[in-house]
Design goal:
Helix content: 40-55%
Strand content: 5-15%
Number of strands: 8
Strand order of the largest sheet: 5-4-1-6-7-8
């Protein structure tokens, strides 16, 4: 699924925004989305959602939920659950998820190496997600990913406050809403075609970079930093 471009080509899709690495004294601050970017909890989500449906009989389309992982739980449940029952249904879902979700968590291909790549260059890793924050931490621990910070309950542009507070240079996600998050957070929008959106849909959403998966991220990050170093040399020479 996704693009076949080689990492050496930066696997990027140029749009109106100029691709311009920013030079820092140390490594970059990189933000990551969670579901279908770093971790895959679809098995646990399906199980918990099916159990919720059997309890409340709201007509929840479990397959639709699995095919569209990403938006906030309350927004998803609101498709089937009456407004005055959404909060209670969400609370019950989280109880059901705790019993199965963490145990069935899987790392997305390349996730561990992508985080390590940021660490290797002296960077900082933050996770910004729409997921309930305690469940986000639990899922990350299950796959041995230890970010510097996790921010839950945020979707789309609402992620910007965390990205701006940590001066994130890059935000990596799998959903068109993650492109909006990067834009609002003044970060480079790097996307992976491992979630509900295709590479073409991510490009059309305005992503600066489209990768097939996080398996391509370390090579892309290396190329990105080389470009930043060349840019810095060019700026110094022009100043002379």
């Amino acid at each position: 699924m996704g693009e076949s471009r080689r990492p050496s080509q930066l696997a990027r899709v140029a749009r109106e925004r100029q691709y311009a690495p920013v030079v820092h004294g140390g490594g970059p601050v990189v933000g990551f989305d969670l579901d279908m970017t770093l971790i895959d909890q679809r098995a646990g989500i399906a199980s918990a959602m099916a159990s919720l449906e059997s309890e409340i009989g709201a007509g929840i389309d479990v397959q639709w939920v699995i095919d569209n992982v990403g938006p906030p739980l309350e927004a998803v449940l609101a498709r089937w659950v009456p407004p005055d029952h959404v909060e209670g249904a969400a609370s019950r879902y989280r109880e059901l998820f705790e019993a199965v979700g963490v145990a069935t968590t899987r790392a997305m291909p390349g996730a561990v190496d992508a985080v390590e790549a940021v660490r290797t260059v002296g960077g900082k890793v933050i996770v910004v997600t729409a997921k309930y924050e305690p469940h986000a931490w639990a899922g990350l621990r299950a796959v041995d990913v230890a970010p510097d910070a996790v921010f839950g309950w945020r979707f789309g542009p609402a992620k910007a406050d965390a990205l701006l507070a940590h001066r994130a240079e890059i935000y990596v996600g799998d959903h068109p809403a993650d492109v909006l998050a990067a834009r609002a957070g003044d970060a480079l929008a790097v996307t992976v075609a491992t979630g509900p959106a295709s590479a073409e849909e991510l490009a059309d959403a305005g992503a600066d970079v489209v990768l097939r998966s996080l398996e391509d991220f370390p090579a892309w990050l290396d190329d990105y930093r080389r470009a930043a170093a060349r840019q810095a040399v060019g700026h110094r020479r022009s100043a002379w």
